[in-house]
Amino acid sequence: MREIVILGGGISGLSLAYYLKSFVRSPSHFRNRLRNLHPSSSAGALTSQNPRKIRIRIVEASPRLGGWIHTETTPSGYLFEFGPRGFRPSRSGSEVLNLIEQLGLQDEMLTVTPAAATSRYILHNQRMEKVPTNLWEFIRWPLARQVVAALFNEAFAKPIQLTDDDDESIHDFITRRFNASVADWLIDPMASGIFGGDIRKLSIRCCFPILIQMEQQYGSIIRGMLLSKLSQSPKKTLLDGSEMSEFVRRYERAVSISFRSGMYTLVDALRKDLEESQECEIHFDSKATKLEVVHQDNLAQFQLELETEEKARQIIRATDVYSTIPAKHIAPIVQNSYPEMAKALQRVQYASIGMIHLGYEASVLHSDGFGYLVPSLEDEKVLGVVYDSCAFPDQNASRTKQTRLTVMCGGARHPEIQSLLRPELENIAISAVARHLGISAQPNHVNAVLLEDCIPQYHVGMWQTRKSIEAHAAAISSRFRLGGNNFCGVGLADCVHRSKQLALEFFQDNFGSSA
Fold this sequence. Notes:
By secondary structure, the chain is of the alpha/beta class. It has 3 domains: 2-65 and 263-348 and 459-511, 3-Layer(bba) Sandwich (FAD/NAD(P)-binding domain); 71-93 and 100-116 and 349-457, Alpha-Beta Complex (Polyamine Oxidase, Chain A, domain 2), CATH 3.90.660; 129-231, protoporphyrinogen ix oxidase, domain 3 (Orthogonal Bundle), CATH 1.10.3110. Helix content is 38%, strand content 22%. The strands form 5 sheets. Strands 7-6-15-16-17-14-18 form a 7-stranded mixed beta sheet. The longest helix is centred in the C-terminal third of the chain and has 20 residues, at 492-511. The radius of gyration is 24 Å and the shape is globular. One of its GO terms (molecular function) is oxygen-dependent protoporphyrinogen oxidase activity. InterPro entries: Amino_oxidase, FAD/NAD-bd_sf, Protoporphyrinogen_oxidase, Zeta_carotene_desat/Oxidored. Its main location: mitochondrion. Its cofactor is FAD.
């Protein structure tokens, strides 16, 4: 029997456990899928050396599951998210849609309303400007002239040939390919909304690798976007080789997806499925403090030291360890036995986000929309505001025309927000929506929370850091793997996609003819 330990009970750890037990339960089914997808792969006949059973233990340091996913409904009926409020179903998001279908959550799912999807704003010189969705809006847009100039510049800019190790900042890349206006007024707020970071430090290779690929393959981003659409047939299969269902194909074009009762719906469904399975057990209030490889009867195993809520010390053994916790939390676990890996992990930096929820018992917005983003040039502590009640109105309390807003501030631009008290964060949010949106009414509900070190920063050089960390992990053991949002994307869909990749690799390594 394979004894698998997963560090972390967030969406990465939960989805990894779900995929592992699903693949191993039906080996022939998934082996045939993979053979059709990759005819030359090693997913062949099950050998006597292959494990037919696994036991999965999820080790979670807190008393709850979900990680940064945290939904709350107030006594007054306001539903707010303390973490991600949805996910983008395109690209890697198709795996989340498939997961939703497997868990039977289709009827609970919500998509962003058309009005919100087509109405996004950017703060420009302290004025709210709608991002154009048609030619007439574009002509009247204050940034139209700069964008047209940028498109001409991009079409004729010569590509720079890069090696696999070359990197540059998002700001340098966009300025080189387009111009500084596009970098400062369009890409900067978008990147802040995703990463909470500074585009003069964030890596284009790690944050937006598709842009690097287009420049290298087609010589131009615009040319790459056009030619790739013409040359590529629509994606029809998922990672495991299964055909995309009608449900997945239908919703993968949506702007953003959530659930009637919030994003924790997905966590609850995964928890219920895993608790009902024979393969999985969940250890709450158990913090991993040390990991090392030990040998017993000529077999290498992992030995993990855990600290429980009562500060008791517990030792567990495992054949495989998957860490989905932040790099900064892995570092102290491997510090004693593998100090060089700990040093590499400590190079990963993080951004903290102040999240302030505002609830009004009336409709106070002058126009519907998804929300607005704030470029760094505006010199505001606020990164952006999401109009939750417009984006997902089915989450509103039915008895009122309530308005729900989420204000995000801080990030890498303003690390000083980490030292602010809750009332100070609340005042920043109330002042911002008053100035930017003309909301004079006082909110009926206000709540501020600091999400400390919630987003890893993929700075220039992160590509090399990632390779170094993965090399150290492989040197410890090929059965020590890293998931989560550390390297492969910070979004919920990225995390689920990475977990499915790891589960498939486990399946192929242990159920293949060459195992």
